[in-house]
Structures are given as structure tokens and as C-alpha cells.
Design brief:
3-stranded mixed β-sheet, 12% helix
Length: 99
């Protein structure tokens, strides 16, 4: 499985991982909603399970992806500060639109 992270997202994710409640946890990307040919995603801190693949990224952050979920392979985690601060997670191997 593959996952990319932009520089802003790496900075925010590293801050999340350095917080006290993050102890022993990793970054997880998960599907919040599926629409047939595409999905919506979110990110949280979580512990690995038997169904996860730990994906190494070029930003030095390991990401948990559930191997049973095909929409997760190829996700790209981006973080933008404008127009409002927040993550945008897309997957170029599936059709997506912005909200």
C-alpha cells in the first residue's frame, strides 16, 4: 500500500504524535464515507491491529492503513492553512471531488 504526505501535513502530524495522548499510537487514515467510486477520509491517532499495514512515508512518518479497505491504497494526506486550516485527504487512484 502507498501513502504520501505533504510538508504541512507532516508538520501537523508530528505535533500530534508528540502530544501526551499519542503515547504508543500511530497516525491512521480511515474511510469515513464511501460513494461507490470514491471515498471520504479522516486521520486520527490509533494503535495497529492485525488488519493494518504500516506504510513508511518519505516524511519519516509511518501511517496505518487497513489492508481490507481498497480506497486507502494510494492516499495523499495534505494540510492547508487557507482558506481554513485542515487536512485534505485524497486518493488519485479513485475519482474524487472537493468539499
Amino acid at each position: 500500500m502507498n501513502c504520501k504526505i505533504n510538508r504541512n501535513a507532516a508538520k501537523v502530524l508530528k505535533q500530534m504524535l508528540e502530544s501526551e495522548e499519542a503515547e504508543g499510537k500511530m497516525v491512521r487514515v480511515y474511510v469515513t464515507l464511501e460513494h461507490g467510486d470514491h471515498a471520504h477520509y479522516d486521520v486520527k491517532l490509533d494503535r495497529p491491529t492485525n488488519h493494518d499495514e504500516i506504510v513508511k512515508t518519505d516524511k519519516g512518518i509511518d501511517v496505518l492503513l487497513d489492508k481490507r479497505e481498497p480506497f486507502l491504497d494510494g492516499v495523499w494526506i495534505k494540510y492547508f492553512y487557507v482558506p481554513q486550516a485542515g487536512f485534505e485527504i485524497t486518493n488519485s487512484s479513485t475519482i474524487h471531488h472537493h468539499h
